[in-house]
Amino acid sequence: MTEDVASHSYTYPAVGLLIDGEWIYDREPCHQVKNPADDRILGPVPGATSEDYDRALAAAAKGFEIWRKVPPQDRAALLKRVAVLMRERAAEIAPAITLEHGKPLADAEAEVVRSSSFLEWDAEQLLRDYGRIVPTPHPNYQFVVREPIGPVAAFTPWNVPVSAAGRKLAGSLAAGCSVIIKPASQTPASTCLLAQCFIDAGLPEGVLQVIHGKSSEVSERLILSSVIRMVTLTGSVEVGKQLTRLAAEGVKPVLMELGGHAPVLIGPDVNPATVADLATFGKFRMAGQLCVSPSRFLIHESVYSDFVSEFAARAQALKVGGGFEEGAEVGPLVNSRRIDTMERLVADATARGAKVLSGGARVGNSGCFFAPTVLGDVPLDAAVLHEEPFGPLAPCLPVSDMDEALKIANDIEVGLAGYVFTNDMVLADRLTNALECGSVALNQFTSPGADAPFGGHKESGIGVEGGAESLHSYTVSKTISERRVRV
Question: DSSP letters along 410-479, please?
Fold first, then answer.
């Protein structure tokens, strides 16, 4: 790994509060953003004052009354303009993501494009958010209509700062809601650049606000306000539970996409080298810092040795480096606390008998780099099999049959994504249907795009984003009964 000198050629964008159409930069910093590749301080983040919260909430209330009355065709046209601007500005937005997150620039560019697809999908979906007529005895009529729920408080994560924000803004704004969004403290600039695309596309003032501050303060000020009608988060299970409790005080619905611990079930009939190729990309993309990242490899004992040997060799060959570094395949973790977590999980697993087949340690003395790590013969009581690593750590264990793999896979309290590899379609059908998770990929590592619902089972979340359901969480049903007689 060499110093990521290319990152010095990019200027980190100014981070501001967006309130009622105005960017505000002159507040006391609530924290500083650090580049995880080289530990450089990138810039300050202004923290909202009490008056800023009041203004943002008042603006969201005003913006909702304006935006809800905009015809669906006009809302759709604006979202499509935003999607075009995002793609045109990918060369500006992607470097900001890489500076504050560390992911390879190509991954950041792909994230911008993926995010624009959410805008395009929901721009079309809002035109299909039909009501219905319920047959009743004449002369009565019943109409069911879908209406925007109201101002939304949205909280987004650091690992996909534009993709997650784009998905929430697409659904809520398509439905006719106003939004106050709180980006993750580690990655605020890329969300600000996204917000600017909405402003430049013509979004009315007050419909979108961007707020920064101490997470607990922001969540309480927004969620407990009578202005906010709905809460959405992409984040950890722990934070999801905290925000759901706050929302419950006001009986406010929530949309929660929370943590996972994705199992990979590998059958006895696969080519170990082929699956190892796929697993290397699936596991170590974005340094394993994805909610759908495969994180428990349950391999049939007949192919176990060959698979882990091939997998470890490929992991060992990956180039670790900063996101702007030529040929870098695995970037840094987002902060030093993630390094501590990796070291703790590796130490716990090896103390219980697991073997380090590749990696297993920090890389370099600066930045937050951890070597792509494959652990073999991981026992069931190892912490890494029960705690999502959210990093470049792949625990592997052999199973005697696929029923055992299925039992292990389902024996935790989260269920976001799962993966199955087999050429036996009868087995594939049984496993994909029996896995307790929101999405399952067969013989590939992928996750739902804009056109399919994405969400978790059990503690991995409430509700879904995307697909035909994309606007459901941001709307409410109203039944209108009419009696067509003179009174």
Answer: HSSSEESEEEEE-S-HHHHHHHHHHS-SSEEEESS-----TTS-B--EETTEES-BSGGGTTGGGEEEEE
364: three-class secondary structure by DSSP: coil
Residues 6+ positions from 258 with CB-CB distance below 8 Å: 233, 234, 235, 236, 237, 240, 414, 416, 456, 459, 460, 461
Q: Is 257 a catalytic residue?
A: yes
Cis bond leading into 372, ω under 30°? Answer: no
| Number of domains within the chain | 2
24 & 69 share domain: yes
For the chain, what percent of residues have pLDDT higher than 70?
A: 98
Of 109, 257, 325, 465, which residue is the catalytic one? 257
Of 389, 234, 371, the C-alpha closest to 297 is 389
Domain range spanning residue 405? 262-449
Q: What angle do CA 374, 377, 383 make, to 5 degrees?
A: 75
Look at 140 and 100; give whichever has higher pLDDT: 100
Stated length of the chain: 487
Assess if residue 484 is contained within a domain.
no
Q: Which residues contact 486 (CB under 8 A, 6 or more apart)?
A: none
The 10s digit of each residue's pLDDT in 165-210 is: 999 999 999 999 999 999 999 999 999 999 999 999 999 999 999 9
Q: Which residue has the tokens 């039909």?
A: 130
Q: Whole-angstrom Cα distance, residue 154 to residue 231?
A: 6
In a domain, 485, yes or no: no
Tens digits of residue pLDDT in 405-456 = 999 999 999 999 999 999 999 999 999 999 999 999 999 999 999 999 999 9
Among 287, 392, 400, smallest CA distance to 346 is for 392
- Read off the pLDDT of residues 235-260 as tens digits, 9 standing for 90 and up: 999 999 999 999 999 999 999 999 99
Separation between Cα atoms, residue 152 and residue 209, nearest integer Å: 10
User: Could you say which of 291, 368, 396, 437 is catalytic?
Assistant: 291
Residue 180 shares a structural domain with residue 55 = yes
Q: Let me know whether 298 and 386 are in one domain.
A: yes
Q: Under DSSP, is residue 243 helix (H, G, I), strand (E, B) or coil?
A: helix
Q: Are residues 226 and 318 in the same domain?
A: no
